[in-house]
Amino acid sequence: MYAIFVTGTAGSGKSLLTSNLLEWYNSNDTSPISINLDPGVANLPYNPDVDVRDFIDIYSIMENYNLGPNGSLILANDLISTKLSEIQQQVDELNPEYVIVDTPGQIELFAFRSSGPYFVSNFFSDNKVTLFTIDGTLAESPINYVSLMFLSQSVKLRLNTPQINVLTKRDKIIDKLKEVLDWSNSISSLQDSLDKEKNFEQSLLSKDLIKTLLRSGNITNPIAISNITMNGMINLSAALSRIFTHGEEEKNNQ
Ligand SMILES: Nc1nc2c(ncn2[C@@H]2O[C@H](COP(=O)(O)OP(=O)(O)O)[C@@H](O)[C@H]2O)c(=O)[nH]1
Ligand SMILES: [Mg+2]
Fold this sequence. Notes:
single chain, alpha/beta, seven-stranded parallel sheet, 11 helices, globular, binds guanosine-5'-diphosphate
């Protein structure tokens, strides 16, 4: 069983990507299931097979602890790790090949508190990958692009699994897509775009930061997809298979 944790900032396309991955794996004769790990979500574009909202009710938390919407959302997210064994049991009963995990809308509540990393590291599966979704419409400016690449690395530092950057909403940035993808292929093209930025200090800081990321050797080129046209899904599924099969090879060689 392979687990795919779909992370990213609020509105970056996590839930729609979860839904598309389910469809993708279903139509490729594999058996995927979905887990919704967002206790605060009202509507989802798919029917989750396992749902954290069955175990954590945001409205009862508000009443029982006399909390407002923000406080109860934080507490609800902190409680996710306490429901790991119930969730794992439901998943194991379904016995799927792929588990696609849609994570909470607010990434800071999942990746930067203790519950999310605990869940990711203790969820039992043969192999795990984190997808970090980057909203294409936010990554259009080179300074935003650098800051999102940093956020991606920060999430990797917290969740500690192999990670793929996924640039979503490519259908909305058709005119800029080539330039954005060039930034990941060539540092000089990113530097050129940063040089054209009006704010000198922001531009300089971005250049320093991207050099640091490149030196660490960890920065990976984002895979551009559209959750609407499905363009790019084939590249994403190939990248996922590479990580999953590579992981299996490593295990077999041990
Ligand atoms: N045009 C376009 N819209 C998208 C894409 N991915 C997500 N959206 C829209 O962006 C909004 C947020 O998506 P959602 O999956 O709920 O984001 P989440 O908060 O990360 O789970 C929704 O209105 C989606 O329909 C995409 O690739 N292209
Ligand atoms: Mg969502």
